[in-house]
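FW: tagging you since you asked about this chain on Friday. Here's the raw sequence from the shared folder, copied in full. Didn't touch anything.
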Amino acid sequence: MAMIQFPFLFSRRSVRFAVVSGIAVLGAALSAGAEAEYRGLWVDAWREGIKSEEQVEQLVADARAGNFNLILPNIRRSGDAFYESRVEPRAAELDGDFDPLEALIRHAREGEPRIEIHPWIVTYPLWHRETRAPRQPEHVFNQHPDWMTRNRKGEIWDGGTYSLDPGHPGVQDHIHSIAMDLLEHYEVDGLHFDYIRYRTPEWGYNEVAVERFNRIHGRGGLPGEQDPEWLQFRRDQVTDLLRRVFLAAKERRPDAVISAATITWVPGPETDEDWMYSAAYRRVLQDWRAWMEEGLLDVSMPMSYFEHDRYPVAWKRWNRFIKDHRYGRHAAIGVGFFDNRIADTLQQIRDTREPSAQDGVVQGVIGYSYRNTNKDGVPRDGFLRALVEPSEFDGGKPPVFAEPAKVPSAPALTVEGAGHIRGAVRLPDGDGKAADVRVKLSGPVEREIRTDAAGYFGSLGLPAGDYRIQVLSGESGASEEVSGTAVAVVRAGRVVSEDVIVE
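HL: got it, structure written out here
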């Protein structure tokens, strides 16, 4: 989304955990005037939009004027908070005690129709000035330089950004804490992740991450950037964070919608097999197709920011792929308002509503961005009118957002009769956790998984029943000793937590 300030990243797919198919149920194709579809606006925190009561009031009024029903405000931008965070410092440019997120929620619910608020957090990119540190001493950049990602040369500045390393346990805990802080202290409707990916395969060489990789695989030294095991290890780090947040969120706030801005980019997959060569999978190590298969997102929001007259083939390919690879979850296609003429944006919105050849559909659109709505130079209010009224931009067609629409009901948490397990493998001292250890689940089905960088594990889509959780020592195929055991009862449609203490 916030493509202006941070360099573009890419993504791909991780398969460390067994794929869970058929996790949820979904709705039917939408047409203009449909009763329910996502109509979202990404609102960045670099310019106007959320920095004062007046801006927030105007933003909500504009959203209603355009018949939008979802606002995704950028409330974590560069390791700073545009809300009252218990984890990170307040954004320096906010005046007084103004809380943008509180104001947004209040204004979005005061009037009609109701607008949902899904706070948008920039996940790994942290700071964008090479030679000047953040002014807040408590900023994570100042507190934890050891958490920064590196390349093979040991450099931490990537040419535009300093970023956190997904493979460091401190980073995993920190981002999880941010997510839980938001869900527990604000009545938000959802939580949205952006930049939940690597910069490129050149990055990820934080020494803790490399040590973990070498320990798991019995190797030494620095792996090559394109080493298949190293690529997969890094995909897994991003997936592990999302799994941990998703399961914790659904246990505490099952109504909260978890979404992510996911990568597309030219040229786009012509066939299903092309996913393995996509920018998402190979370049930024963001395996969002696997996330959908496993059920780790309620809504994927692929950023299909294509100039319509320049990249029509990529736009068409990604439309098809997104519609045909939801696995029962929801998808809302990200349209690049900023990169298109109004006529082309209206056409792209219509394209998203057309079923694929396999009858695949999506559940709406998300526009980037509120700040920059078109290439025609038309003011924002003119753009909004073109969405809801007949206009010269649309050749006399019915307006795309002629009437207000409800937000779709979130996809079901699980298929009927299934639930989820989450937990941690704790050391005997009660505080420490065991990272990268094997965990075996035995019950109505058997699965073997691993704990993540911070010692947490999770598994989705388990048939309800009693499960024995065993922590195994050694690698698969070697002599296995059980070093810890617990029992969990999985209930249909629920997330159950159960920690294991190792001996």
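FW: The first helix runs from residue 53 to 65.
HL: agreed, and The first strand starts at residue 38 and ends at 43.
FW: great, closing this out.
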